[in-house]
Amino acid sequence: AVEILDTVELVYSNMLTKRREVSRTHIAFAEGAFCIDDRRHLHLAREIAEKAVMVVTVGGCASFGGIIRLS
Known about the structure:
- There is one protein chain.
- The chain is of the alpha+beta class.
- It contains 3 helices and 2 strands; from the N terminus they run E-H-E-H-H.
- Helix content is 32%, strand content 20%.
- Strands 1-2 form a two-stranded parallel ribbon.
- It starts with 24 loop residues before the first strand and ends with a helix.
Protein backbone atom coordinates (compact mmCIF):
# COMPACT_ATOMS: atom_id res chain seq x y z
CA ALA A 1 0.00 0.00 0.00
CA VAL A 2 2.87 2.40 0.70
CA GLU A 3 4.26 1.91 -2.83
CA ILE A 4 1.20 3.60 -4.33
CA LEU A 5 2.11 6.88 -2.62
CA ASP A 6 5.10 7.17 -4.96
CA THR A 7 2.78 7.15 -8.00
CA VAL A 8 -0.11 9.31 -6.76
CA GLU A 9 -0.24 13.10 -6.45
CA LEU A 10 -2.84 14.79 -4.26
CA VAL A 11 -3.82 17.83 -6.33
CA TYR A 12 -6.78 19.09 -4.30
CA SER A 13 -8.45 18.43 -0.97
CA ASN A 14 -10.41 21.03 0.95
CA MET A 15 -9.07 19.51 4.19
CA LEU A 16 -5.57 18.31 3.25
CA THR A 17 -4.23 21.03 0.94
CA LYS A 18 -4.28 24.81 0.94
CA ARG A 19 -5.15 24.93 -2.75
CA ARG A 20 -8.43 26.61 -3.60
CA GLU A 21 -8.58 25.57 -7.25
CA VAL A 22 -8.96 22.08 -8.68
CA SER A 23 -6.13 21.14 -11.06
CA ARG A 24 -6.55 19.00 -14.18
CA THR A 25 -6.18 15.34 -13.28
CA HIS A 26 -6.75 11.86 -14.65
CA ILE A 27 -8.87 10.49 -11.80
CA ALA A 28 -10.78 12.46 -9.15
CA PHE A 29 -12.20 10.80 -6.05
CA ALA A 30 -15.23 12.54 -4.55
CA GLU A 31 -16.22 11.67 -0.98
CA GLY A 32 -18.89 13.14 1.24
CA ALA A 33 -22.14 14.91 0.52
CA PHE A 34 -22.62 17.41 -2.29
CA CYS A 35 -25.68 19.60 -1.85
CA ILE A 36 -26.99 20.81 -5.22
CA ASP A 37 -28.76 23.71 -3.46
CA ASP A 38 -25.38 25.05 -2.24
CA ARG A 39 -23.71 27.12 -4.98
CA ARG A 40 -20.22 26.35 -3.66
CA HIS A 41 -20.88 22.61 -3.77
CA LEU A 42 -22.41 22.81 -7.23
CA HIS A 43 -19.49 24.89 -8.54
CA LEU A 44 -16.98 22.42 -7.06
CA ALA A 45 -18.80 19.41 -8.53
CA ARG A 46 -18.86 21.04 -11.98
CA GLU A 47 -15.20 22.04 -11.73
CA ILE A 48 -14.18 18.49 -10.80
CA ALA A 49 -16.24 17.05 -13.67
CA GLU A 50 -14.66 19.46 -16.15
CA LYS A 51 -11.06 18.95 -15.02
CA ALA A 52 -10.95 15.18 -14.43
CA VAL A 53 -10.93 12.48 -17.07
CA MET A 54 -12.79 10.20 -14.65
CA VAL A 55 -14.68 10.90 -11.41
CA VAL A 56 -15.04 8.11 -8.87
CA THR A 57 -17.50 8.65 -6.03
CA VAL A 58 -16.74 6.99 -2.72
CA GLY A 59 -19.53 6.16 -0.27
CA GLY A 60 -23.28 6.59 -0.23
CA CYS A 61 -23.35 10.36 0.23
CA ALA A 62 -21.20 11.20 -2.78
CA SER A 63 -22.78 8.46 -4.88
CA PHE A 64 -26.46 8.87 -4.06
CA GLY A 65 -26.93 12.05 -2.01
CA GLY A 66 -27.09 10.50 1.47
CA ILE A 67 -29.06 12.25 4.21
CA ILE A 68 -29.01 15.64 2.46
CA ARG A 69 -30.88 14.14 -0.49
CA LEU A 70 -33.70 13.03 1.83
CA SER A 71 -34.44 16.53 3.13
